[in-house]
Amino acid sequence: MKTATLETNLLDFAKHVKAGLEAAEGDAVKVASFVENNASEITGLAALAGPGATSVTTVALNLLNVVITAVKGAGDAASANGLSVSLDSALVADVKAAIAAIEKV
After folding, report:
1. b/e map 38-73, b = 16+ CB within 10 Å
2. Interatomic CA distance for residues 50 and 29, integer angstroms
3. Once rounded to an integer, what is the mean pLDDT over residues 6-18?
4. Which of 46, 25, 21, 48 has its CA nearest to residue 35?
5. What's the CA gap between 8 and 81, in Å, rounded?
6. Between the ranges 71-75, 79-83, 94-98, where is the mean pLDDT highest?
7. What pTM, to 2 d.p., does this model score?
8. What are the DSSP calls for 17-72, one per residue?
């Protein structure tokens, strides 16, 4: 793929991300849905920043999926009372690895 084509595709996708986030207008559920629906593209963009960014992005998306599931499951009660989310040991280990990767930068 030519560099100019890659830059055009990247710019088009960035505009798509910006439009999606602007359309959400601060609504966390809409933002979460947008991120969930575009996870592979977001991870692909992170890969451009380096291999460490890809793993951190993957962990972030996994965390977001846990939170989305909890918020959807709790419904209106989550808005009224807040929500606690439990993380399994594997996800905690992934978060610790992401923290270590971020701290190296």
Report:
1. bbeebbebbeeeeebbbbbbbbbbbbeeebbeebee
2. 29
3. 61
4. 21
5. 45
6. 94-98
7. 0.55
8. HHHHHHHHTT-HHHHHHHHHHTHHHHHHHHHTT-HHHHHHHHHHHHHHHHHHHHHH
Nearest to 57 by CA among 79, 40, 74: 40
What CA–CA distance (Å, rounded) separates 72 from 88? 19
**Residue 76 to residues 30, 36, 68, 70, 86: CA-CA distances in angstroms?**
15, 21, 13, 11, 19
Which tens digits make up the pLDDT trace of 27-72?
666 777 777 787 777 777 766 666 667 777 788 888 888 888 888 8
Interacting residues of 54 by C-beta distance below 8 A, sequence separation 6+: 43, 46, 47
Place of tokens 């846990």: 66
